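Sequence in, structure out.
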Amino acid sequence: MRKASFPAFAAIIVLSVCSERALFSQSKLQLPVQVQRGQELFLKSPKGIACGTCHTLAGVGTAVGPDLKVLGAAVGPHGLVMAMHMTMTAYVQEVQLASGIVYPGMLKGKQGDDMEIWDLSQTPPVLRKLSSKEVKSMKSNTAWKHPPSTTEYTDQEVADMVAFIKWASTGSTKLIKVDDVAEAK
């Protein structure tokens, strides 16, 4: 019975990945202009660290931070702006190595005595593979800030990024108004 369900599960995963790639690979001419602008800001921000440096969405970016597709499908523009402006997150910790090096990091995974921790002091983040003995401590972060919270995006740029996140998460092409995001700041 288990063998029969694996191919079905694999087919669901393949279809999901293919539909996400197909959604993203649509010609930019078919996308609303606002979604196009948001996509550009997601991938390359002229003002700071782009969202795609740490997040993946519509098949592009780096899967360090939480999945924005889930968030984009679950909350409205106001909630997305609030998440962008969070100064700290529960995921980022201050990592102190036995060597004395300290950096903001995110635990990707731990298996036995081996750990993988994203080093957020690097741009783009670097995945460090360490043994538990090399890590002296991991505690609540008090210094690292979520990059969008320190970047002076205009309300229009924020609306554009929210439009891209909503499109990539749900397929929505609804215009995100500046008023929809200005109130959330």
